[in-house]
Amino acid sequence: MTVHSAGTLPHHSYGGDSAGLVCGYLMQGSTPALPLDSIAAAHWLQAHPQATPTVQGGTPLGVAAPFVWLHFNLAHAQALRWIQRHAQLPDAFFEALKEGSHSTRIERDDDALVGVLNDAHFDFAFEPFDIATLWICVLPHVVITARAHPLRSVDALRTAVRQGYTPRSSVALLEQLMRTQAAGLVDIVRGVTQRIDGIEDELLAGRLNHKRARLGVLRRLLVRLQRLLAPEPAALFRLLQHPPTWMGADDVQELRDSTEEFSVVLRDMQGLQERIKLLQEELAASVQEANSRSLFVLTVVTVLALPINILAGLLGMNVGGIPLADSEHGFWVIVGILVVFTAVAGWLALRGTQDK
């Protein structure tokens, strides 16, 4: 079996090796994780078939059993075939892959944990569509994760393992993955908050500059994140109440704690959505007020020009009997009449706005 030492970890591209394996590690308690390629992982799984640890009162006895973490690129043609041939996973995992389910959940299937997690792309650029799905299956001896696009949380977990982090059990790896994902979400929320702060400062300074479109993009992003990343409460509740027999009490508690971290981040997202909604309403009110002022100015100009237009139309009729036609001061009399009527019309218009 080809096992690399921790210090000679080969560089894996995001595309994976010949079997679509992006990275693989053998976890052995307190010792550093050993990198595996697809051939070594197949040999290890063949030599270590699934076995349920002896438990007493829900807590495993003795030292935690070793397990492997294998992360696959589903865009590779051989990845799914390798998993089906060597991993011996439950049908629920393959059904979730086939259905393309994107609803975040972690549920129990007999003695396995099957989960669907959503996370931001590795090169996340604050766009609502930069979200991808990670499918995961957890057994006592193996953790299989699969994705079609590079994800932030998985890359952060790979970096932690490279730096010496070794989870004590397969469930601890799942819990760490969820915490890493929650930490990534905190960074996204922090970035969105900074953008909203900038837009709010410009709004208070009176510089609109079409910020409503930017606020709409940020709000759609938060809505999509909340809709895709919030775990299904029913499935999670059933899992925490009736975990598999091989899960220890510490694992159940840490899994519950990691879900609570998700809840905190999701509540922060809800608060940001409400804040964006208020800013959008403020922007809409500002735009409406500016439009009202423009309409008022146009109305006043129309009212002031009304006497001139009416009188000019009357005096311009080509009929006999037009008054002051033979008077040498007729022009100035008409001008005086227009000035008086225009002043009265302006006074009435301005007084109406002051009464409001």
From TrEMBL:
Keywords: Cell inner membrane, Cell membrane, Coiled coil, Ion transport, Membrane, Transmembrane, Transmembrane helix, Transport, Zinc
Membrane topology of the entry: Multi-pass membrane protein
Transmembrane stretches, start-end: 295-317, 329-350
Regions annotated as coiled coil: 262-289
Record-linked SUPFAM superfamilies: CorA soluble domain-like, Magnesium transport protein CorA, transmembrane region
Any single GO CC term annotated in Swiss-Prot or TrEMBL for this entry: plasma membrane
InterPro entries registered for this protein in UniProt: CorA_cytoplasmic_dom, CorA_TM1_TM2, MgTranspt_CorA/ZnTranspt_ZntB
PANTHER family xref list: CORA FAMILY METAL ION TRANSPORTER (EUROFUNG) (PTHR46494), ZINC TRANSPORT PROTEIN ZNTB (PTHR46494:SF3)
Family affiliation: Belongs to the CorA metal ion transporter (MIT) (TC 1.A.35) family.
Protein name: Magnesium transporter CorA
Organism from which the protein derives: Acidovorax temperans
Lineage: Bacteria, Pseudomonadati, Pseudomonadota, Betaproteobacteria, Burkholderiales
